[in-house]
Amino acid sequence: MLSVNNLVTSYGLIKALKGVSLEAKKGAVTCILGPNGAGKTTLMFTLAGILTPDTGTVNLLDQNLTGLGAPKILRKGLALVPENRLVFADLSVYENLLAGAFTQSRAMATQVSDDIEKMYDRFPILKDRHDQPAGNLSGGEQQMLALARALMSRPSILLMDEPSVGLSPIIVDEIFAIIKQLNEDGMSILLVEQNATKALQVADYFYLLDQGKVTFSGTPDQVKDDDIIKRAYLGGG
Amino acid sequence: MDMLQTSLDGLMIGSTYALLGLSFALVFGIMRRINLAFGACLLFGASLAIYLEPILGWGAWGLFLITIVGVALASAYVERLCFAPHSKRHGALTAMVASFAVWMQLDEISSQLLPQRTHAFQGLEVPNFWWGEIFVRGDQLLHFAIALVSILLLYLLLYKTRLGLLIRATADSPETAHLLGAQVPWLGFIIFLLAGILGGVAAFMILSADGYVTPLFGLWSTFKGLVAMIIGGVGSLMGAVLGGLILGLVETHAGAALGAEFRDMVTFGLVFLVLIIRPGGLMGVKIYRTDSLARDRV
Amino acid sequence: MDIYLASVLTNMTLIAFLALSAYLVLVVGEVSFGQQAFFGIGAYITASVTALAGAHIFWGLLAGAIGGAVCALLLGLLTIRLSGIYFAISTLCFAELLRFFLLHIRFTQNIDGRIIGPDGPEGFSNIRWIFENHYEVVDFLLLAATCLTILLILLFSLERSRIMLGARMVGNDPILAQSQGLSPTRYRLSFITLSGAVAGFGGGLFALFNTHIEPAMFGVMLGIHGLAYAIIGGLGSAMGPLLGVVLDIGLLESIRQLAAYRMIIFGGLVALLLVFRPEGIVSPRLVSRLKSRWRNRHV
């Protein structure tokens, strides 16, 4: 569904992505593992259009997304939930959801209202706090809000950058349960995670990104068998 | 020889700017805050010193001492009222406006202490001398020495004491600054006190070199401190020192070449250029778009 | 109406333009120490157009607004990569450089026996529109208040549209806003330019009311005051800066009796107010809550 070919992105003179190729299949949860500094966030930002790649292509369902800015990419159906940068802190929960639907045209106002109601149904805690500033929400609630906001743009594929970071194990379980549910409802998901154990529970396919290159790709079983991954991410052999 | 004379003068003045810049850099570099009341604190210290002088009769060294104490007191007051209550991440703007309000307050108090527009400010009696063809003002040389000593003392504090370690650790990361600020609530207080002391030293040096103080001194010194910090690179302590020295040099040369009127404009033009071309200043403080330093609202 | 009261109210109205212009920049997440320069440019341009060229006040004010907007746009373009304190200081420098420029403009004409025109540090005297048109203080107050009301209506309609939401998104987190499909640069430039227009217009009114302007009037202090009013009033809506102006100037005037100690008390009060209400009076939080209550009023 989303195919990335030989993506190269630089920060000034430093090449953060040195030719990344991967594929996220439709209806699957694809997970990207990797150490800090591997280029995972750079990859996410590039896919979402916040950074422009030097070379390489990004295609979503036969649509070429390469080099289009973030607004156009969002309209074409790719939504990003960034890491650590979850919500508009001073805006209320309601306004955050509205923000997610920003690229929808004015004429769609009713649809947007309906979508917000749907989000409230799916995430009741957001309904409770709908007029509170998003910055007041707990970590887990903010992650949920970020997710709901991304869903407001009615994406075909959802990109998530380290959804478990900074959250307690119980909340992480909740988030991953939601991710699994979203996937079961038909959403394609590209996930960046450090928590490989949790990722193994939901992901269908894995890539390992190291120093700007893909060094491994495989199924969950192959991941469990791989020594490198076992040592680095699953706590030993 | 003229160039040399101008450069020497520039360095002398620059050393005082360096201290002003350091004060700003301490507060902004470590706490990510702009203290708009800074100049007003300096004015208050100087005003208090002059006001008490006839009562205490301690002469120029008395002025020096009281100025420092006055500025330190005012800084502590500002910290408690304007900065301590707004120590969370997004409190920067509110703290700044509160410090502006106290700026007004301190300015008024200073006017009460010194009702006339200009007041004489006695300097240290140090003989002037000639070094070859260069005229050296004795008091400015002494000031330069005092500035050096102050910077050295600050360096020792920051690098040889545990408190200094704490301060430097906080300076390295803005996030840590807020975390540590909460754990060590008096850290902000100490930093403001340090900045106040440095500022007081600088204030005395500048005013005694000029020989008089006017109500405009507050705004003026706030400008200089900010500019020195920006040229050197926001938040960098070494940068603030270098920035101050460079500011002094540029200013003095511009004044000599173009006249006093253009002097200030050259400063503003220089800063504007620095910001557009190399916002990180001399020390090249990095600011990427995704960097939180650039994102923080003031 | 008592002339003194009318003067105070007129001053409030004029400063409100400045406060609103600071507000417009704050909304997109930046602090500007330079709005007073656009105010000053607007003043000079309006004065020139009405007093020197003898044009109608409408053209004068329009020209003032456009002048402010152009300068602001220029600043915005030059500082396009800057943010936070870097942006703030650059606005300060830009404003002082502009003021330096005003200090050196000399273009006087002798019209009907009077010297009219910008005259360096002496300023621009004899901006006689209000005399020639027999405007009393109260009349001018009405004029200024009407203009302010129109501006407020414009800003409120902006508030209801998604433009304001977009601006606040950019102000909260530009990168996140980008990931939601906005262009932070475009919002920044637009709002900065708009702020210049608003300040320029206010400056034009100021010139007409004062009949004499000089560069010293448009220094940093004026700008920081405008900024302070906006923040104390709260950034939740355009009413905030307005409230800030009314409160501050009103409070200041009401303790006028205390003469010299005015600023001492006032400064302390403001700092205290901020301790208890750090987000200002009309805070975004408050406005969100009011909006949601209105939205759910039938529930």
Number of strands of chain C: 3
At CATH level 2, the architecture of chain B is Orthogonal Bundle
The H-and-E topology of chain B, N to C, reads as: HHHHEEEHHHHEHHHH
Instruction: Going across the biggest sheet of chain C, name each strand in turn.
Output: 1-2-3
Overall structural domain count of chain C: 1
Number of domains of chain B: 1
Low-confidence stretches of chain C: none
Structural category of chain C: mainly alpha
The count of β-strands of chain B is 4
What is the CATH class of chain B? Answer: Mainly Alpha
Write the element-wise H/E pattern of chain C from the N-terminal end onward.
HHHHEEEHHHHHHHHH
What's the overall average pLDDT of chain B, rounded? Answer: 83
Q: Count the helices of chain C. How many?
A: 13
Helical proportion of chain B, percent range: over 70%
Query: Measured on Cα atoms, how large is the radius of gyration of chain C?
Result: 20 Å
Unreliable stretches of chain B (pLDDT < 50, length at least 5) are 287-298
User: What does the overall shape of chain C look like?
Assistant: globular
Separate helix tally of chain B:
12
The CATH topology annotation of chain B reads as: ABC transporter involved in vitamin B12 uptake, BtuC
Protein architecture, described:
The complex is a heterotrimer of chains A (237), B (298) and C (299). Chain A is α/β, with parallel strands linked by helices. Chain A contains ten helices and ten strands. The longest helix of chain A has 16 residues, at 169-184. The model of chain A has no long low-confidence stretch (mean pLDDT 85). Chain B has one domain (2-295): Orthogonal Bundle (ABC transporter involved in vitamin B12 uptake, BtuC). Chain B is 75% helix and 3% strand. Chain B has twelve helices and four strands. In chain B, the strands form two sheets. Chain B has a two-stranded antiparallel ribbon with strand order 1-4. The model of chain B is unreliable at 287-298 (pLDDT under 50). By secondary structure, chain C is mainly alpha-helical. Chain C has one domain (3-218). Chain C is built from 13 helices and three strands, in the order H-H-H-H-E-E-E-H-H-H-H-H-H-H-H-H. In chain C, strand 1 (109-111) and strand 2 (114-118) form a beta hairpin. The chains are: A alpha/beta (237), B mainly alpha (298), C mainly alpha (299). At the B-C interface, helix 4, helix 9, helix 11 and helix 12 of B face helix 4, helix 10 and helix 12 of C.
